[in-house]
Structure formats: C-alpha cells, structure tokens
Amino acid sequence: MTNTNHPTVLITGFEPFGGEKVNPSWQAVQQLEGLIIEGHIVITRELPCEFDTSLEALYNNIALHDPALVLCVGQAGGRSDISIERIAININDARIQDNAGHQPIDTPVVKGGPDAIFAKLPIKHMLWDLHEALIPASISNTAGTYVCNHVMYGLCHYIDSHKQNLKGGFVHIPYLPSQAVHHSGAPSMTQTTVISALKSMISSALRHDQDLAIAAGTTH
C-alpha cells in the first residue's frame, strides 16, 4: 500500500499502440501524479497495450496502492469527446495485434465470467459535471473489443469478485491535435482539456455514490 496519509486514487493510461508515437491517455494521466483531489492522492501508472499483461499490471497496482477509485483511460481515435464507458463485454476480438504481437479472436476476457459488466462509477454524475464545465462528453455503450475493453472488463470483474466497495471504470479520450494532423478529418482534444476532464471525473466519482437519473442514451 502507498505510504501516504491520504487515501488513494489509481489512474492509468496506456503506452502508444497501432503505430502512434504517443498515447494521449498516458500523456494526460501522468500529469496528475501526486495531486490531491477530494482528500485523495492521485497515483498514475502506464499500462502495456497488451492482453493479459495489462490486467496483471493493473491488479498488482490495486494490491499495492489499495485505491478507493480506479479510473482507466485509453485512446479512441475518431471519437470527438470524452467517452465515459457504461459497459464492458467478456470478449477479446482484436482487429490488430497488441504490442506483444498477440491477436486474440473471440476469446473471453475471463473464462466463465458474465457476458457483460457495468462500470462501477456514477457515470451520469460524471457526465453532468463535465457538461457543467463546458467539456464535450457523452456516455459510450461500447468500449470496443481490444485492450481497452479487456482492461475495463477485467477491472469490473475484479471489483465484483474481490473488492465490491471499490469504484472503477473506463474513459476513452480523442486523439491529441498532434496526432489528428496525421489522420485526415479526425477530431482531437487538447491535453489541457483532457486533464481538466480527468480532474472533474475523479472529483465527481469520489463525491457521489448514487448516480443521477438523467437521459444520456442513444437511438443507434
């Protein structure tokens, strides 16, 4: 456990993948190291963009730091806003190889686990607070089938199985402008805005145990 007088929050980003030189999740997340938010100290860690080893690293850090909240952050190139993930599904279906050269197709994240697990976060409170801060954001109903979904499902399954008082979930963020210039027509978000969004979501997640009942669904 971390040697601190404060309870902890664990925030993770990913290493670059898919030919990108940077990953905006880690670029932003690492800037929060040591911050105090709602009386909690923020601990940041970079996860490998690899199936299985990403979860091993996450579980080891949860055991080491005993956080009250785990928020995992990943890149979603092509999305235009902060995407708070609602649900993770128990499948790996990799369109491209991970950074270790693995490409699982139609395998479970956790053998025998439920088909899907919802985030352990007040996602609509988080959304409301982002909108109040004039930060573009939405609730996403798919975390994909790559390493991001793998990590979200593994985290939520761990919480259900081992530590039900732990809050946890996943957020996707857009490309940085420096990445978007290499992807014609792709939207982007500045690191400054992403950092503000992360601070807001951490605060909201720590302050609220019950979620808001506001409409944030989609028709397709």
UniProtKB/TrEMBL annotation:
Record: active site:
E85, C148, H172
Signal peptide bounds: none
- Location, primary (coarse class): cytoplasm
InterPro entries xrefs: Peptidase_C15, Peptidase_C15-like, Peptidase_C15-like_sf, PGP-I_bact-type, PGPEP1_Cys_AS, PGPEP1_Glu_AS
| Keywords from the named record | Cytoplasm, Hydrolase, Protease, Thiol protease
Annotated catalysed reactions: Release of an N-terminal pyroglutamyl group from a polypeptide, the second amino acid generally not being Pro
EC number(s) from the headed UniProt entry:
3.4.19.3
Q: Where in the cell is it found?
A: Cytoplasm
GO CC, sorted alphabetically, is: cytosol
Q: Name one GO molecular function term.
A: pyroglutamyl-peptidase activity
* Biological processes annotated in GO: proteolysis
Q: Does the keyword Chloroplast apply?
A: no
Oligomeric and partner information = Homotetramer.
Q: Which family does it belong to?
A: Belongs to the peptidase C15 family.
UniProt cross-references to HAMAP family, sorted A to Z: Pyrrolid_peptidase
The task this protein performs is described as:
Removes 5-oxoproline from various penultimate amino acid residues except L-proline.
Please identify the protein, giving its name as recorded. Pyrrolidone-carboxylate peptidase
Species, as recorded? Pseudoalteromonas luteoviolacea DSM 6061
